[in-house]
Amino acid sequence: MVAVREYGSSSAPRARLVSAAIAALLGMSWWRVGLVVGLCWACEPAPAVRVATTTGVREEGAVVVAPAADPAPFHRDTDVALKFVPRKFKKTRVPLEGSSAGIFSPDGASYFVDARTTSFSGGAIVSGAHPEGMKIASAVHEAGFSAHGKHLYLLDDDTDTVTVVDTATAAVAGKWQEAFVARFIGDDELLFWKKCRLMRVDLTHPLAAPTPVGPELCGAADASEDGKTWLVAGKSTYPVMVSTRAYMHVHKIDATTGEVTAIAIGTRETPISDVRLSPLGDRICMRTEDITCMDVRAAVTAIPKPSGDPFSLRWDVAGQQFLSTAAGDLVWVDLRSRSVRTIGLHTDIREWGFFPDGKRIYAFDRGAWIVDLSTGEAIEVYPKEVTVGVFVPSPKGDRFLVTRVVSPTEREVDLVEPESSP
After folding, report:
1. Structural domains for the chain
2. Closest-CA residue to 404 (of 383, 419, 378)
3. What is the model's pTM?
4. Which end of the chain is more exposed for a tag (fewer CB within 10 A), N or C?
C-alpha cells in the first residue's frame, strides 16, 4: 500500500521505501509544484499530443486517429468544508533498528519494514506469530506483496536485482538480475522489466529461465498493481518511469497476451511527462501542455480535461478519482460525477493519498492528517512539529505505518492505531 518510486499512493501492496522520506529531508516541495500550472475545467485534449489507437505506431509522422471524447465536461462543485475533530492514537515504534518505511500485507495481518544499519541491510516481516520480525538479508529499495501475500519481492536499485521471498518462512524463492520494475500476477507469477523486454517468471518453477512477454520495446516502464498492464515510455535509456522526464511516446503492453498498443505520441515542442497509470491499469493521466487523461481499457478514449497537475496526481485504488493541486489548493477530482472540489486543508503538506475505501484521504509533511470526504471531518494524527516522510494505511484503513524524520540521517517507523475508529 504504498509510495511508488518517486511519489506516494495508497492503492497497492507495494512501496517505494525511502524516496518520500528523502524528499522531505531535501525539502522538495511537491505541494508547490502544482501552483504554477495553468488549468482549465473543461477543454479538449491538447492537440500537441495525439491519442493513438493502432499498434506499432511510428513515433514520427504517424497517422493516428483520436476517438471522440466523452462529451460530459468537468464542473466545479462546492468545496469540502472541514471541521477539525480531536482523536487519540496509540503509536508504537516498529521493532527493527534502522527502519525508514514499511508496507502491509494484502490482508493487513502482517507488514514488512526495511532496515539499514552498520551491520545489517535488508528488512523484516512482522506479524502476530513473529512480533520481532523475520529478518531478510537483502538490500531493498522497493517492495511489494503478491495478491494474497504468499510472496514478497524486494528490488535493489544498486544491483538491479529482484529477490522473491516466501513470506511464511522468509526463505528466498529466487533472485533475478537486470530487473528494474517488478509486479506479481496472482501469487505465483512474477513479471519484471529488463530495459527493453518484459520478462515472466513462473514461481512454481523458480529455477526455470524467465520467458519474454511481447516484442522488444525499449524505454522506461511502470505497471498496474495487478501486473497485467504495463506502460513503456520512450525514448529513454533509464528503465524506470519517473516524473519530469520528457518522453516522445507511450505504449501499453498487455502482460497476459503480449499485445502492444500505442497510447500517445508527443512532439519535440510538447513532449509527454509525469505519466500516471491508475492502479487497475484502466486510465492514464499525463502532462502535455498541462494535463491529458484517457481511458485505455479497450479502445483508447480521451477524457475531457479535468483540473489538476499530473506531477502531484494520486489515484484512488479503483482509478475513479484522484487528488492533485490546482491554483494553490488540494483538489479532489471524481471521474464518475465529473466534479472537481477543493479540500481546504491549508497546512504545510507535500504528499497525499486515498485510503483503500476511497472515502477518506491522508495528507502529510509537517504533521499528518486524515480527512473524511463525505463529512469533512479532519483528524490530526501528528502535529505540525513532527516531520512525516511516509504514511501507509492498512488495507482496512484501521491502522497506519508512519515514518517520522528524526534527523537529517535518521528516521523511525511507528505503527499507529486509533484508540477509537476514525
Report:
1. 3-418 (2.130.10.10)
2. 383
3. 0.84
4. C
